[in-house]
Here is the input.
Amino acid sequence: MDISRSSGRWAVVVASGGLDSCVAATLAAREYRLAMLHARYGQRTSERELRAFHDISSDLKADRRLVIHLDYFSSIGGSSLTDDRMTIPVDGVKENIIPLTYVPFRNANLFAAATAWAEVIGAEKIYVGINQIDSSGYPDCTQEFLDAFNRLVRCGTRPDTQVQIVAPLISLSKQGIVRLGLDIGAPMDKSWSCYQRSDRACGICDSCRLRLDGFRANNAIDPIPYA
Amino acid sequence: MDISRSSGRWAVVVASGGLDSCVAATLAAREYRLAMLHARYGQRTSERELRAFHDISSDLKADRRLVIHLDYFSSIGGSSLTDDRMTIPVDGVKENIIPLTYVPFRNANLFAAATAWAEVIGAEKIYVGINQIDSSGYPDCTQEFLDAFNRLVRCGTRPDTQVQIVAPLISLSKQGIVRLGLDIGAPMDKSWSCYQRSDRACGICDSCRLRLDGFRANNAIDPIPYA
Here is the structure.
């Protein structure tokens, strides 16, 4: 009854359109047919991120794309990414403090949707771009979280479902991610990371800072436009 | 910054509008202010379930309601509940076979949304109506799944978030659930369980059968209309 199943080995890629998921998707594309998943959840730069998602998917010749709407994050609030009454922090990532940009339990929601899709199409892997080191301190970007999610997948899906979530960038720094992206020819020029702007990246939000530092540390130029 | 937080002890209740979540919500209402969560995911009887959700919420004087749309389950397919090309089984629940009505990883998606809401409003508990015994054999209705999800919540939310998912019906039979519902005055007349029809319950789908058997075993009359 798996009406959507088809030939080939598949990986679902959870792709925001940002730098990390761009590199993760490029890794996945070396082994699997790609089923690219993007979630809109009321984030401020959602149109720009969606464009980046499609540009990256086209560049990597993805066979399938699914854009889902998690509108309830706007209703729920609690994050400066989805709530216009809150400001985007620009004062750098601090140790042991969870930033205002944290969207409550977001990755669990994304990964759960990805697992549902993976189960139906019979995907072997779900690639995600999370990384623990330069991840702004989000609790749902850790190895512990990933392990807990994989346990949940094993016991909460059909017995014959064999899908695993993999996070190949989990222990890389932003410098290491950019290095890897350069090495494997990831279409980083198509990616978008800025939390604030959609025309040119602001260059000052935490996400821009981490990205710019990653390119600088590789003596490379970030190919996207900055204000 | 928890802009939605307010006084009182809160529980989020994941409520389909069915019998089990009706009883679970009634239990929650004895201790907590209620934040009722309902998900629409393209199921055939979604309008009727939504009405049941609102009727139950009104009866229990819930302070908050949130209806979310998980439209992607229709796109993903793979279940007879969300795919009109598949038929609803009426031949009884079988041992060790996962029925066609299984919606892939649905409860993980629901519980993840509930956890996000709970984290923002500062709820102590998330009540869910899952039960392992008469649950049609769904893998995401087990104690093991629940334990795995609670581990995920502990490591994937803010350190100061203390929310726990509780499933007070997990080890009850349908007979036991109806007994409990009668004892605590759960508004079971407002609930809806049928997978197929919205005017009168069909009485023959697996969900109707389990429910009818539960009332019969208590020598009680199911108060909803049957065809």
